[in-house]
């Protein structure tokens, strides 16, 4: 079966760094995505990894290890507006199609 | 990128009635996806809508309950039929680019059934 695990909730302090982990077990792999979702809003794209290694984009970085079925999203210089849910999604093979499989999301709470 | 206009943004409906949600995309796309997101949970795919063919439904979702239309390459509707309070959720439409491209979402429809 297809499975994605990420922590339910994390708390961090404004200005600090936080790492949100995601592990996956899927049939086939064609990329891993991270999305940010503020309460009551639609998810917005943050990053995409298809090869092993680190992708950096401003304050956000995402890492992938395909052999370990593992990714993390690293958020630096945390701001209050970073309080949101962070969704890990894997494009995996489902029958003849590649389908996005979604994790349950990690709710990140930023404290002053 | 793609811009998706989804409406209504929210509605409160009586049980037993039906609600149709519309999504308009600013470009032609082959597949559109309909998701449900219950409070505090992640996205659950309801069905994939292809233009010119019947939608493909995921396990646990049936056409009688969630009929979908896809009349052209820029538009789709999802109807939530014979609603019950268990249908209260956020419904999202989405489009995806190539396999390596990200998904884009409509603004979501927050449905409350009373």
The tally of beta strands of chain B, per DSSP, is 11
Outline of chain A, from the CA principal axes?
Answer: globular
* Helix/sheet category of chain B: mainly beta
Biggest sheet statistics of chain B:
7 strands, mixed
Percent in strands of chain A: over 45%
Instruction: Give unreliable regions of chain B as ranges.
Output: none
Radius of gyration of chain B: 13 Å
Tell me how many strands of chain A there are: 11
The amount of helix of chain A comes to under 10%
The helix/strand class of chain A is mainly beta
Helical amount of chain B: under 10%
Oligomer: heterodimer
Give a short account of the largest sheet of chain A. Answer: 6 strands, mixed
Mean pLDDT of chain A: 92
Distance between the termini of chain B: 37 Å
Describe this structure as you would to a colleague.
- By secondary structure, chain A is mainly beta.
- Chain A has no helices and eleven strands.
- Chain A has strands at residues 3-5, 9-13, 18-25, 32-37, 44-49, 53-57, 60-65, 70-75, 84-94, 97-102, 106-111.
- In chain A, strand 6 and strand 7 form a beta hairpin.
- Chain A is globular, with a radius of gyration of 14 Å.
- Chain B is mainly β and 114 residues long.
- Chain B has no helices and eleven strands.
- In chain B, strand 5 and strand 6 form a beta hairpin.
- Chain B has strands at residues 4-7, 10-13, 19-25, 31-37, 43-50, 56-57, 68-72, 75-80, 89-96, 103-105, 109-113.
- Chain A binds chain B through residues 30-31, 33, 40-45, 48, 50, 87, 89, 91, 98-100, 102-105, 107, and chain B through 40-45, 92, 96, 99-100, 102-108, 110.
């Amino acid at each position: 079966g297809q499975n994605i695990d990420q922590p339910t909730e994390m708390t961090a302090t404004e200005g600090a760094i936080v790492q949100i982990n995601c592990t996956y077990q899927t049939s086939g792999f064609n990329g891993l995505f991270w999305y940010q979702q503020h309460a009551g809003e639609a998810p917005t794209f943050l990053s995409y990894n298809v090869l092993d290694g680190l992708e950096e984009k401003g304050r956000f970085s995402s890492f992938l290890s395909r052999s370990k079925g593992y990714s993390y999203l690293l958020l630096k210089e945390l701001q209050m507006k970073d309080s949101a849910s962070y969704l890990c999604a894997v494009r995996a093979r489902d029958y003849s199609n590649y389908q996005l499989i979604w994790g349950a999301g990690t709710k990140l709470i930023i404290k002053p | 990128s793609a811009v998706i206009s989804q409406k209504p943004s929210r509605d409160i409906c009586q049980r037993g009635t039906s609600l149709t949600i519309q999504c308009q995309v600013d470009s032609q796309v082959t597949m559109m996806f309909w998701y449900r997101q219950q409070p505090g949970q992640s996205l659950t795919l309801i069905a994939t809508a292809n233009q010119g063919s019947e939608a493909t439904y995921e396990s646990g979702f049936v056409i009688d309950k969630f009929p979908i239309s896809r009349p052209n390459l820029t538009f789709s509707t999802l109807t939530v039929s014979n609603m019950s309070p268990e249908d209260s959720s956020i419904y999202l439409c989405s489009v995806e680019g190539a396999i390596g491209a990200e998904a884009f979402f409509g603004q979501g429809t927050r449905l409350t059934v009373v």
